[in-house]
Amino acid sequence: MLLTTFLNILGACVGFLSAIFFSIGAMIMTPMNIHKIAASYWDANQHWGDCISEQRADYIAGGLLLLLSFLLQLSANLVQPTAEPYLIEPLGCAVAEIATAVSFLLICSLLLRNAVAKNTKQQVRQLQMEELAAQELATKNHTA
Fold this sequence. Notes:
Layout: H1 3-27, H2 31-38, H3 46-78, H4 91-143
């Protein structure tokens, strides 16, 4: 298999993974989630914060995959069209390497997405707790 073909296929697969991450936010937005987000709350809206945190994580993972996809497709156009590295020479090896690379990137992207979502949720909840504490302190000082 030519190196340009290998890189184009790998770039297209990574671009597809990127599209999946970018689409997740819209696909999992159920009516119940929309209701929770749109409902009135007196203080901080934890559901809204969690939803936005997860969307942020999906966009980060998708954006990084999209950049990698463009880099792979760009490199496919910059290498010599006749380059045939021995690592991807038999078609079966090339397909296995593409599947392995895509699987590895998917696992890494999911781990990154979950870590970013968890960290962002914790930060948002901390900010919400600090704001509630400040409001309670202001209410106590105002009534005193």
